[in-house]
Amino acid sequence: MSEIKKIKNLKDFSTSADRFEGANLLCPGCAHSIIVREVLNATNDDLILSASTGCLEVCTAVYPYTSWDASWIHIGFENGSTAVAGAEAMHKALGNKGRLKQPDRNPKFISFAGDGASYDIGFQWISGCFERGHNMMHVVLDNEVYANTGGQRSSSTPIGSSATTSPAGRVSYGEKKNKKDMMAIMAAHGSPYVAQVSPNKWKNMVKAIQHGMEVEGPVFINAVSACTTEWKFAPEDTMALQDLATDSLVFPLYEIIDGTELNITYRPKNVVPVEEYLAAQGRFKHLFKDEYKYLIKEWQERVDAKWDYLQKREEARV
Amino acid sequence: MQNNGWDEFEIGAMLRSFDGVAKDIPLKQPEDRNYSSSNSFTASVADWRIEKPLFNKDYCIDCQFCWIYCPDMSIIARDKKMVGVDMDHCKGCGICVEVCPTNPKSLLMFPEQADEEAELAGWPEKDKEEK
Of A204, A264, B4, B58, which has fewest CB within 10 angstroms of its CB? Predict the structure, then answer.
């Protein structure tokens, strides 16, 4: 077994050498690459990676270039997780037969996918991987929309958001369905570790990633990724948006261990009203018209109820 | 590099990130790595920028917030010190300037054609209105 990389503070962390390269074609200010960097820099071990179709895949593997300095496979929309699971199964089988060339190395198997490829299209495949119990990590870059193809709604898109297939206008306030609770679904698979993280809380995130790499079994990480293009805010405000998302408790940061034990990993000192989070984004602009203002109130109630529920579960340890 | 057309690109082909034997990549900084011509590190997105960040090391406290939050691996940090900005890969998003905690900021955005020395000489003074 290799050692866990010791990261005491940000200065320590900054000595890491990135294995994800610049001149990829992600938008300026995209949170995707911040998440990828924090995941890859959390370890010095070998990496076996995949990315399901989405912004991350199409922007980092534009022929003739690759932006990845580790083994990375370019794969379809749905099967990024199974490709990595297959590699993991092969690694395990070769190890059992004693045919690994470097058996002392301890590669990490990580698949990246957007929310479209995880919540909708690749859901069945991920479910399969988790049911079979591969020793891998699935990282969702959750930007709540199919950003790569022009902003269609996904099952991660929250109520009131204007997406190109659920536009806000004269008769509609945009998306009408609430976001799928993927964390609970993956925890129900009996996964040893499920966590929601955000790159602005880097220490929290790196801790979660390192824990996820150490545990045996399939690990699910849901990372909040602010999308400057589809959420419609200025590129320099990405980290401010991430802060608003975590501090308004729209994206509470918590982990679920072995499907039951829930821990809240970040409690904001000053909870920001949800209204501020909504006001910072162009996709919720129409909610501030008089006829839709009741939706903001409903948003706040929903977020408060979820936070209550998480706290009760944390206390009850069930 | 050999340039193939899109229909000559074989199914199952592999792009190599490095030339020769690549060992201990996570322990090597970019200047020590042997990048191949198919690594995007060898490309540049400098022409995406409208504004560029300039770094004034007089005010920098090496907190590394800009390093961790840079989406384009463009903040060069060596031995826990902030060294500068990689202008080949910076897309000019401005996150580094937003997260910089010093007063005055040690990173500021300037128009792409701005002259570095002139701007450094005329760096804004400390904001006195601090409470």
Answer: B58
**B79·A200 Cβ contact <8 A:** no
Residues B51 and B92 in one domain: yes
A97-117: per-residue pLDDT in tens?
Answer: 999 999 988 899 999 999 999
Contacts of A169 (CB under 8 A, 6+ apart): none
Q: What is the pTM of this model?
A: 0.94
Note down the domain range covering A36.
10-316
Task: Say if the Cβ atoms of B80 and A14 lie within 8 Å.
Answer: yes
CATH code at A140?
3.40.50.970
Do B66 and B110 lie in one domain? The reply is yes
Q: Mind telling me how many Å the CA of A16 is from chain B's nearest CA? A: 7
Kindly report, residue by residue over B31-61, the tens digit of the pLDDT: 999 999 999 999 999 999 999 999 999 999 9
Closest CB from B9, B67, B71 relative to A33: B71
Query: How many structural domains does chain A have?
Result: 1
Q: What is the ipTM of this complex?
A: 0.91
Range of the domain at B89: 45-123
Q: How far apart are CA A41 and CA A163, in angstroms?
A: 33
pLDDT tops 90 at residue B6: no
Mutate to test the interface with A, among B45, B93, B105 (most CBs of A within 10 A): B93
Task: Tell me, yes or no, whether A219 lies in a domain.
Answer: yes
Q: Do B94 and A236 touch (CB under 8 A)?
A: yes
CB atoms within 10 A of CB A273: 16
